User: Which sequence fits this backbone?
């Protein structure tokens, strides 16, 4: 879906099975997603 300003909006529903599958992918000692590289390095 795209809003009036042209921004794409992801609109979806996760089922309980989806959430369990995603949770199983995460390591027990860390996040599911590595934040490194997702944003510019503003301090460089």
Assistant:
């Amino acid at each position: 879906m795209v809003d009036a300003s042209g921004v794409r909006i992801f609109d979806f529903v996760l089922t309980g099975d989806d959430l369990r599958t995603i949770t199983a992918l995460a390591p027990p000692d860390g996040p599911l997603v590595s934040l490194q590289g997702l944003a510019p390095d503003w301090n460089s």
The CA atoms of residues 6 and 38 lie 22 Å apart. The mean pLDDT is 78. The chain has one helix and no strands. The longest helix spans residues 16-25.
